[in-house]
Design brief:
The protein is α/β, with parallel strands linked by helices. The protein contains 13 helices and twelve strands. The protein is elongated and about 60 Å long. It starts with 7 loop residues before the first helix and ends with a helix.
């Protein structure tokens, strides 16, 4: 389970005691040792001299976490005025390919690299996954006269596979007693680009509605020809906003920015849960972390868990192509996993549990 197993008060007391011992033993050597370790840290940025970082880092990939990365980039700029961090969207698929091609220094991705594609990163010694934040994938809709919906996994699977095509279908009515559902057509909206949001949404449907969902899972799937596609989460959100009868999957930040109505989704405990950061945090807390720091909070257990919660990662090469980039990447990751976590909520994301954050920070020094 992703639960904090560290007793921080005890740890801080031990560190404080150790510091007193070191100070007592160091005596007259203070001038030669003070500040000597400020550029290296495993504490999530608390001891990093960000102001010493100078250069440029380029990243691309998932639009799902883009609002968070933009907030973190802006925050880091105040601490590291000589470091420029750029991030372009385009989807998780683009980010992973750009990293493999050496076009960027880091990739943002909500989906994992396929085993058969790992060889693309061999020249960089392989990859590291750094979990950063998590958030709900909302089921956003625009239906005249309807401002709330409750949907279960099988109904969602039927809608997005075009087995359910009318808003007043009995399957939708069954979980929305008293709602004035119109007889109008359902307009399904999905991602046009290779997308980790698509990957996680369809992975959820495969897990929660295996007998109903038949389109498989991936960064892209073979959607029905009578659906509509948008580029990035903002593109999907815009189509939903402009189209009466539309429904689609959108990250919470973009759904909120576009003032979209969002559905409550029935979770594995049988509870209808709204897409909130608390619901996402509950899902993350019950997920199993793998050795490579990846985890799957989809269809998680627990009364409060929002079932379509997606993780997201920064992916970097284990060995940077240019030695001068190594401290820059380490600095960026230390900021994201340190001070940047305080920016997550306002950007529309759940921060990482302490235990997972600590594991990610400990991995930073492995980048060479």
């Amino acid at each position: 389970m992703v639960h904090s197993r560290r007793h921080w008060r005890v740890l801080l007391a031990v560190l404080a005691a150790f510091a007193l011992v070191v100070a007592a033993c160091g005596g007259d050597d203070d001038d030669s040792s003070s500040g000597s370790n400020n550029d290296t840290t495993t504490t999530g940025g608390s001891n990093v001299d960000f102001s010493s970082l100078s250069g440029t880092l380029n990243g691309s990939g998932a639009t799902f976490p883009q609002a968070f990365y933009e907030a973190a980039i802006a925050g880091l700029a105040e601490e590291a005025p000589n470091l420029t961090v750029n991030y372009g969207g385009g989807g998780s698929g683009k980010g992973k390919q750009d990293l493999a091609d050496g076009v960027v220094d880091w990739a943002g991705s909500d989906s994992l690299v396929k085993p058969e594609d790992m060889s693309k990163y061999a020249s960089g010694g392989g990859i590291f996954y750094f979990p950063t934040v998590a958030a709900p994938i909302t089921i956003s809709f625009n239906v005249s006269g309807v401002d709330s919906l409750k949907l279960d996994a099988d109904t969602l699977a039927g809608i997005f596979s075009r087995k359910i095509t009318k808003w007043n279908d009995p399957a939708i009515a069954a979980t929305n007693e008293g709602a004035d559902l119109p007889s109008s057509n359902i307009v399904v909206v999905h991602r046009a680009d290779g997308s980790g949001t698509t990957n996680n949404f369809t992975k959820y449907l495969m897990s929660a509605a295996p007998s109903t969902w038949t389109l498989g899972s991936g960064d892209t799937v073979n959607w029905s020809s009578d659906t509509q596609a948008g580029n990035g989460n903002p593109g999907v959100a815009q189509i939903i906003k402009d189209t009466d009868g539309a429904i689609g999957y959108v990250d919470l930040a973009d759904a909120t920015a576009s003032s979209l109505d969002t559905a409550s989704i029935k979770n594995s405990a049988g509870k209808f849960v709204e897409p909130t950061l608390d619901g996402a945090a509950a899902a993350v807390d019950s997920a199993q972390v793998e050795a490579d720091l990846t985890y799957n909070p989809l269809n998680a257990s627990g009364d409060d868990a929002y079932p379509i919660t997606a993780p997201t990662y920064i992916i970097v090469l284990q060995k940077t192509k240019t030695a001068s980039k190594t401290p820059l990447i380490q600095g960026w990751l230390n900021y994201v996993l340190g001070p940047g976590q305080d920016l997550a909520k306002d950007a529309g994301f759940a921060s990482l549990p302490d235990s997972l954050k600590e594991q990610a920070v400990a991995q930073i020094d492995k980048i060479t």
